[in-house]
Design brief:
two-stranded antiparallel sheet; alpha+beta; Alpha-Beta Plaits; binds iron/sulfur cluster; 11% helix
């Protein structure tokens, strides 16, 4: 069984403080340098979803509870059947 994780960020509630970026051990998240949310902050975004190990440190440190980590499971490569929805950023 292959375990994957969806990192879901509510960008409109993000204040761009960067705490989640600083604690992620796998550099999955970065602050956007391309656009601001409607509050005027550069929101965090997922840039390497395949690297997430599901440690939840980003979600834990976020002062505004903006991030959710969802575990999803994939069947082994022989069956290639998806057990749960592992599409990235589906939120
Ligand atoms: S759960 Fe861990 S590895 Fe995944 S994005 Fe958050 S801090 Fe990074
Ligand atoms: S810790 Fe929360 S508020 Fe701060 S940048 Fe990350 S998601 Fe946004």
């Amino acid at each position: 069984m292959i375990r994957k994780y969806n990192v879901m960020i509510d960008v409109e509630r993000c204040k761009g403080c960067g705490l989640c970026v600083s604690v992620c051990p796998k550099r999955v998240i970065e602050l956007s340098n391309e656009h601001l949310n409607t509050k005027g902050y550069p929101p965090s975004r997922v840039i390497r979803p395949e690297e997430c190990i599901g440690c939840t440190m980003c979600a834990t440190i976020c002062p505004d509870l903006v991030i959710e980590i969802e575990e999803c499971l994939l069947e082994d490569e022989k069956t290639d059947r998806i057990e749960q929805d592992c599409s990235p950023n589906k939120a």
